[in-house]
């Protein structure tokens, strides 16, 4: 377990803060007049997703969180729980509260493989690919003259997620989505 000094607490690090795992979103080291330098950070709790601002002073250290990853298959979401099973050990099933992982699960087809981050052997959150390919379940027909909005329409994907797609996208097409922004990037194949 590495110990990080105040100036090593940088974005993308996962640290142990108050015995909880946090991902460092941003850090800014500055020195106020006649004072010792401070690292002002934004931390996101790995489980709840809650963001807090913490300042670390020059004499402070934190432990790097002991995070492991395992591969798991997304099974389904039901009654507010999203269920997964460890890839090589399907009997090891676990769930996350749907609202904690919804922004990621909405892009997952059944049996998609994801990385699960574990902390002290307990599943904490999932990491999904930045780009996924999904089938368009429903796309309204393009209406002539409806190009005011830059020529997009709202389509529903096979996972239930809704995204704006260009007018030429039809039901059954496979599209690529950027999961960070939730935006359509390209059509992969035509129905």
Automatic annotation (TrEMBL):
- Name the protein family: Belongs to the elongation factor P family.
Q: What Pfam families does the database record attribute to this sequence? A: EFP_N, Elong-fact-P_C
Output the lineage of the source organism: Bacteria, Candidatus Kaiseribacteriota
Q: Which SMART domains match?
A: Elong-fact-P_C
Q: Which GO terms describe its cellular component?
A: cytosol
- Could you mention a single GO BP entry for this protein? peptide biosynthetic process
Mind telling me what this protein is named? Answer: Elongation factor P C-terminal domain-containing protein
Cross-referenced InterPro entries: Elong-fact-P_C, NA-bd_OB-fold, Rib_uL2_dom2, Transl_elong_fac_P/YeiP, Transl_elong_KOW-like, Transl_elong_P/YeiP_CS, Translation_prot_SH3-like_sf
* NCBIfam families attached to this UniProt entry: PRK00529.1
Q: Care to name a GO molecular-function term for this sequence?
A: translation elongation factor activity
Q: Which residues form the Elongation factor P C-terminal domain?
A: 132-187
């Amino acid at each position: 377990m590495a110990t990080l000094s105040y100036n090593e607490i940088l974005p993308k690090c996962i640290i142990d803060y108050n015995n909880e795992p946090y991902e460092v979103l941003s850090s800014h080291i500055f020195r106020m007049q006649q004072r010792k330098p401070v690292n002002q950070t934004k931390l996101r709790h790995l489980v709840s997703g809650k963001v807090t601002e913490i300042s670390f002073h020059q004499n402070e250290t934190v432990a790097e969180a002991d995070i492991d990853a395992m591969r798991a298959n997304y099974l389904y979401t039901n009654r507010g729980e999203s269920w997964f099973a460890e890839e090589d050990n399907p009997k090891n099933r676990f769930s996350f509260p749907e609202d904690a992982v919804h922004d990621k699960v909405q892009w997952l087809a059944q049996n998609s493989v994801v990385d699960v981050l574990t902390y002290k052997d307990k599943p904490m959150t999932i990491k999904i690919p930045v780009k996924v390919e999904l089938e368009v379940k429903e796309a309204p027909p393009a209406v002539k003259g409806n190009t005011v909005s830059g020529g997009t329409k709202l389509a529903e994907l096979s996972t239930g997620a809704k995204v704006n797609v260009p007018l030429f996208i039809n039901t059954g097409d496979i599209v690529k989505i950027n999961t960070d922004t939730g935006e359509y990037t390209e059509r992969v194949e035509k129905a």
